[in-house]
Amino acid sequence: MDYEITLLTTMSISILFALALNFVTGLCGQISLGHAAFLGTGAYTSAMMTKASYPFLLTLPFAALTSGILGFFIGLCSLRVRHDFLAITTMGVGFLFVGVVRQQDFLGGEVGISGIPSPGFSRFWFLVFCLFLASLFAFFSLRIKKSWMGKVFESISDDEDVTRSLGINVSHYKIFAFVIGTSVAGVAGALYAHHLRFIGPDSFGFVESVSVLAMVIIGGVGSVWAVSITAAFLSVLPMVFQFVDDYKLLFYSALLFFMMRFSPEGLKGLVEKIKKNRKSKLDKENKNEQKAS
To answer: What is the pLDDT of residue 121?
Structure first.
């Protein structure tokens, strides 16, 4: 039973993290190749506070705050750079975070932080808590996507200049997306730290940023349900099959190539294509029946 709880907890945290990136990249169209840095910021904040005898639940707002502040400054950078240049900027933030952590002894340096205190409740209730937070943010993302703000995000993603010409303050919305997406990533990092009870700089490197970006792209950029399913599947795959963990980047690259070749819109597009083909087939059968009658 403990193994199943561990798998489900890992899935829940991965879903929350993937949805955090999807809020920035999927809803607002801002590419982030260093989102693991925000995951790490929240993880280290929560770990350091709990080791200083602060309650776990109290550390979550601070994990969100520190990651959100970092996200705010990255959001300011996004006002001056776009697309590929923004991706390079966020990738640089990811490398900078790992480099800084490695050099700071009070953060554990190369060794990392071990012996992180338990959250204060059983593994089962920790799983329930993780599922609750993932479900809550999924609901929030859906509400935002269907609201007027979601339409603004979609417009910014399609063409910033046209959106700005309509009198919309694009800067405010881009910064808002970054702050929300990075704050939630910080919360996911806090959950991650107390789930594994150990964190190190290698846990938040470029590979993790690419992995979560692959979850968003393979699922379908902007789709809450597809990204959640993909994140759940890809997060436990390395735990079940060792070869996937050993060749993670190769596996994700091959999977991305496959999806780009057969379904550029990811799992979401694949499902919509199947539905469309089935509907077309049913309509054709109905027409044939009407002709026969």
So the answer is: 83
- Record the tokens describing residue 270, joined without a space: 């694949």
Pairing of strands 113-114, 198-199: antiparallel
CA-CA-CA-CA dihedral for 253, 258, 260, 265, to nearest 10: -110
d(CA 16, CA 125): 17
* Residue 113 parent element (H or E): strand 113-114
Taking CA atoms, 67 is separated from 73, 217, 245, in Å, by 10, 23, 27
**Ordered mean pLDDT values, 10 residues apiece, the chain (293 residues):** 85 94 86 88 93 91 94 80 74 85 83 86 90 94 89 84 83 88 94 91 85 86 87 82 71 78 75 75 70 64
Cβ contacts of residue 182 below 8 Å, gap of 6+? 20, 24, 35, 38, 67, 68, 70, 71, 72, 74
Report DSSP letters for 51-65, one per residue: HTT--HHHHHHHHHH
Count the neighbouring beta carbons within 10 Å of the beta carbon of residue 242.
9
Number of H helices, E strands in the chain: 13, 2
As a whole number of angstroms, the distance between CA 16 and CA 14 comes to: 5
Query: Where are the alpha helices (H) located in 79-121, listed in sequence order?
Result: 83-103
**Both tokens of residue 236?**
């436990």
* Tokens coding 165: 């010409």
